Amino acid sequence: MAQPSNAGAVSSPSQGPPDLRDRISGYLFPSRLILIGAYYFSLTLLEAPLLILTDFQTFHHKAFSKLWAVCGEDMSSDMPPGTAELVASCKGVVLDVGPGTGTQLKLFNPEAITIIYGVEPAVDMHSKLLKNAERYGLKTKYEVVGAGAEPQSLIPALEKRNLLKMGEKNSAGIFDSIACIRVLCGVPSPEETADGLYRLLKPGGRLVICEHVKQPYPNGGDFIASLFQRFYMLIGWPFWLGGCCLDRDTDQMLRKVAGPDGWSEINVNYSQTHAAVPYIMGEYLKAA
Q1: Which among 173, 189, 213, 272 has most CB atoms closer than 10 A?
Q2: Does 14 reside within a domain?
């Protein structure tokens, strides 16, 4: 089988070079989020001091939910160019992975959607997620699934909805489109999760992503930004930001779990490679 397009290193879209102000902002903006994350972590600790000892995952979700309730709308409006068109191309039966409060739901095209299953483990976000589904014309087409994206959480949740039979291997897939918008950075078992999502995708189905990833330096990217990215990880970015990891090589992970012939086409690009938080975005078409 021929290699899929864009089979090698991920390319960067043609963009003018960032000016000094953009570079400095790209280096320093994550520090603001760490401070905000630490504030809401502390606030949650004051409200539920025992929860951190009895159920740390739920505690983490609550703290991040508070942060996202305040910052999510602004952060979702500041996405790489092309994100809206990418999400709008989703069609049929869709899996929306980690939608949070639904700030990205406005990007879906309701007329192209049969049904969307929004997989969100943070139950504190579910109410706002459902409100946004109604707000953006998806009320009758959006179901919230209280589960994580990792197979041990997601598969039982899909079985309960009779989307999968008990013990089914998912080789045929059940989703026409899977959307991952700033979520694979935070899943606890990334490679296992990526493999599970690949299996849930129908042959010919599309995985669309917009994820922040490891700084690509020295293969493009920015040396100083790569140092800042390492620094933010060292001072606890995942701890303060809901388990998010800045330095995952998401593209290589998705290629690996599918194998050399698993994707018939890959069209992905880097964006904001001058920043400590660069993005990769595009689509992967599963081989039929």
Answers
A1: 213
A2: no
